[in-house]
């Protein structure tokens, strides 16, 4: 019984910290985090207060908004020795942004989500801001989440789509049948296309980056406005993404680190 309660508490703490990580630049009110985690506001406040005592979160006394704390930064620095792969990906992201003029990204799989780790904007003046460093999306949502989901084993895909309710939050385009159709197209072409399904007019394309076991654990993405992603240019962008993803997969497959999940 004690073990179950402890695991439940850790799960709640993790949910609050993950929710805060997506809002850390501007901070978040307690009520914001309660809505994001579907937890009662008093519960979230108690968790935040306890985390603040340990330095894991910090509170702006003037505004009352919460931010990730200095202790998490120190722990992250220590963990980066084992898990940080962004220094390998930075060159690929730069080349994609420079070659296309679009915004380029590198994301990692974390369980049933993708987390954006890197962003670099190209020189085209109109940009999409759906993706930014730290933002999380479920697998199957945005092009990075779709391409990673697409190259999992069929049994994993079936289990995930049976359990996940993407349609309620992300709309009918994310019903299981719709996602399965996009998975088939992704497997056919080798890269994923998100035709403005999260924000109208904001398109994205992604290629999976694989670990040494051949599992899709990361993704390279390009985003921009719809006129920049016409079918004839998709082939060009897809080729660039696949080339960089293949090269990065080879680089990361030589690492002895554990996978990022």
UniProtKB/TrEMBL annotation:
Residues 71-254 form the IclR-ED domain. Keywords: DNA-binding, Transcription, Transcription regulation. Residues 7-70 form the HTH iclR-type domain. The keyword Phosphoprotein does not apply. It comes from the Bacteria. InterPro entries: GAF-like_dom_sf (IPR029016), HTH_MetabolicPath_Reg (IPR050707), Tscrpt_reg_IclR_C (IPR014757), Tscrpt_reg_IclR_N (IPR005471), WH-like_DNA-bd_sf (IPR036388), WH_DNA-bd_sf (IPR036390). PROSITE patterns: HTH_ICLR, ICLR_ED. This is IclR family transcriptional regulator. It comes from Saccharopolyspora thermophila.
């Amino acid at each position: 019984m004690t073990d179950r309660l402890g695991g439940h508490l850790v799960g709640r703490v993790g949910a609050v910290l993950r929710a805060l990580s997506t809002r850390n630049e501007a901070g978040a009110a307690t009520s914001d985090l309660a809505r994001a985690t579907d937890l009662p506001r008093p519960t979230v406040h108690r968790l935040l207060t306890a985390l603040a005592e340990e330095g894991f979160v910090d509170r702006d006394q003037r505004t009352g908004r919460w931010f990730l704390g200095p202790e998490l930064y120190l722990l992250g620095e220590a963990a980066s020795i084992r898990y940080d792969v962004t220094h390998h990906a930075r060159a690929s992201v730069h080349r994609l942004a420079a070659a296309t003029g679009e915004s380029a990204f590198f994301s990692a799989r974390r369980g049933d989500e993708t987390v954006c780790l890197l962003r670099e904007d190209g020189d085209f003046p109109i940009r999409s801001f759906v993706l930014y460093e730290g933002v999380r999306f479920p697998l199957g949502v945005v092009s990075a989440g779709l391409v990673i989901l697409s190259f999992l084993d069929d049994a994993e895909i079936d289990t995930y789509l049976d359990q996940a309710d993407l349609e309620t939050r992300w709309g009918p385009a994310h019903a299981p049948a719709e996602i399965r159709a996009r998975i088939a197209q992704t497997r056919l072409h080798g890269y994923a296309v998100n035709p403005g399904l999260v924000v109208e007019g904001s398109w994205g394309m992604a290629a999976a980056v694989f670990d040494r076991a051949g599992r899709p654990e990361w993704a390279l993405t390009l985003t921009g406005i719809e006129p920049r992603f016409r079918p004839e240019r998709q082939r060009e962008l897809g080729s660039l993404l696949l080339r960089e993803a293949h090269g990065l997969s080879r680089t990361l497959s030589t690492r002895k680190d554990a996978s990022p999940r």
